[in-house]
Design goal:
single chain, alpha+beta, 174 residues, 6-stranded antiparallel β-sheet
């Protein structure tokens, strides 16, 4: 991420800009759905390979009722790709579990975006000639790099969902 007061930010969805492709979701029904919370947290280091400071748990709730426990959590994972671009994963977990039988259901939702930031702080960076040169450089050279990052973002999303599906059977057996 570029640290500056003023910056130009370009954002794209990794799976396309159509409404139906903005998130990937998987559902689980079986035993111990609350264990998915721990599995998701373990995947940040194993799959995304990001340090703990790049993972932000933005929401966590548990709703204890008489016979069911509802739960939910949301994380924002920032994977820095280079000095200009990073992938942002918005991961959500929601579900409920029966207190007696420990059977329930859960829903995992993953949204991935790529951000590219260019600083615009000093007078040279705000110059029209600098902006024209930056635009040409971005279109001719850097757009291919961003495309590689988008493909890597898709690959990491597939690895994450495959890992979660493998965890489904592991958790159901426990």
């Amino acid at each position: 991420m570029v640290y500056s007061r003023t910056k130009l930010v370009i954002m794209d969805y990794v799976f396309g800009n159509e409404m139906e492709h903005r998130h990937t979701g998987i559902n689980y029904e079986g035993r111990n759905p609350f264990e998915l919370y721990r599995e998701i947290e373990n995947s940040f280091d194993d799959i995304f390979a990001v340090p703990a400071g790049r993972v932000h748990e933005v929401n966590y709730n548990v709703d204890n009722k008489k016979d069911k426990t509802g739960f939910g959590a949301k994380w924002m994972v920032i994977k820095q790709m280079d000095i200009y671009s990073y992938l942002r994963y918005d991961i959500g977990l929601s579900g409920e579990q029966n207190n007696d039988t420990k059977v329930g259901k859960a829903n995992i939702k993953v949204g991935v975006k790529i951000y590219t930031e260019y600083p615009q702080d000093n007078i040279i960076q705000q110059n029209i000639f600098y902006e024209m040169a930056r635009r040409i450089w971005h279109d001719v050279i850097y757009e291919n790099t961003r495309h590689k990052f988008i493909l890597e973002g898709r690959d990491l999303t597939y690895k994450f969902t495959s890992h979660m599906k493998a965890c489904f059977s592991k958790i159901n057996r426990a």
